[in-house]
From TrEMBL:
It comes from Sporisorium graminicola. CDD domains: SPL-RING_NSE2. It is found in: Nucleus. Pathway: Protein modification; protein sumoylation. GO terms for biological process: double-strand break repair via homologous recombination; protein sumoylation. Residues 40-65 have a biased composition (Low complexity). This is SP-RING-type domain-containing protein. Residues 1-77 are annotated as: Disordered.
Length: 327
């Protein structure tokens, strides 16, 4: 079991009557931690990776708060539902620090992939990948804790009295954590949106062609079985991205994406197209509507287009050099 998970395991031997900081003080401490979790990455790829790792560690540490200590071993009734809901809200608010760390790691991954794109392997990228997995695990644990608290609140609301809510909380959380930790890496991360975005950022910067399915980028482990994949689950990856505007056929410039379909356009071209009274997506065979309201900026697409342009320029330079040698 990963060390981060061991740190966060519920300690059954802990004194359940231990005093904890009041909610207002904990929120103040969390705010300070969140502010520290978004350091600048201006120091370059290595500095950014170190900052991201430090932020990841802080987020993981804050995840270990023992809310069971607040559920004292005393009876609870319906009148205590707001208190339990308050604990759920506190856990939810802590998710923001994790999301900021994930955002920082994605920025770090882009810098590292750019700096080491000529190398097949990069230890810094591998460590950033490990940091992201730890953050995803922290998210999963927070979700489990909220789920257990919600179940307790629902039981209290229906009139179920609890003599020892702290014991139930700890036992239910531990049971669900054990189930989560028994999953393989593919089962934990292959369908996670944040992990897909991370892998996609690295792939677009370093590689050509469509990215494989994320599960194919994660080494198989005992317990992985392709035949057991649920056909109803979305498998991310393996999509060919078109970086050319369907109106100009040139590489996208200041792209806008249509939220009603999967197509993107150069801003000037689509603005003129819509202003002329057209309301159908100009991409071939697409029947989706398009309007200025349905268009949005996509920062990730902007980065992908920039990487695509760079690779196209490199290919052009390589072809010219080859032609010079031949002739």
């Amino acid at each position: 079991m990963p060390s981060s998970t061991r740190r966060r395991r519920v300690d059954d031997s802990e004194d359940e009557t231990e005093d904890v900081a009041p909610p207002s003080q904990r929120r103040s401490q969390h705010t300070k931690s969140t502010n520290r979790a978004t350091p600048s990455s201006a120091a370059g790829p290595s500095g950014a990776r170190n900052n991201a790792a430090a932020s990841s560690s802080q987020a993981g540490a804050s995840n270990g708060a023992d809310l069971g200590a607040e559920l004292r071993p005393q009876p609870l009734g319906r009148e205590h539902v707001p208190n339990v809901r308050s604990l759920m809200a506190e856990l939810k608010s802590q998710d923001q620090s994790i999301l900021k760390c994930i955002e920082l790691l994605n920025e770090t991954a882009e810098q590292l992939a750019e700096a080491f794109r000529a190398q097949d392997e990069c230890n810094e990228l591998e460590r950033a990948d490990a940091d992201l997995r730890e953050l995803i695990d922290a998210q999963a644990e927070k979700a489990i804790r909220r789920k257990v608290l919600d179940e307790i609140a629902q039981d209290l609301h229906t009139g179920v009295d609890m003599d020892d809510p702290a014991k139930r909380y700890k036992e239910d959380v531990q049971t669900q954590l054990d189930t989560y930790n028994k999953q393989t890496s593919r089962q934990k991360y292959a369908k996670n949106t944040d992990y897909h975005n991370f892998k996609n950022t690295v792939w677009v910067t370093k590689e050509d062609g469509p990215m494989p399915l994320v599960k194919d980028l994660i080494p198989a482990e005992p317990g992985d079985d392709d035949a057991s994949d649920d056909d109803d689950d979305v498998q991310t990856g393996g999509v060919v991205q078109n970086f050319r505007c369907p109106l100009t056929t040139n590489i996208l410039e200041d792209p806008l994406s249509n939220t009603l379909c999967t197509h993107s356009y150069s801003r000037a071209a689509i603005t003129e197209y819509v202003a002329a009274g057209n309301n159908r997506c100009p991409a071939s065979s697409c029947m989706a509507n398009v309007s200025m309201r349905s268009l949005k900026q996509d920062p990730l697409l902007v980065k992908k287009v920039a990487a695509f342009k760079r690779r196209e320029e490199e290919r052009l330079i390589a072809r010219r050099q080859t032609s010079t040698v031949l002739y």
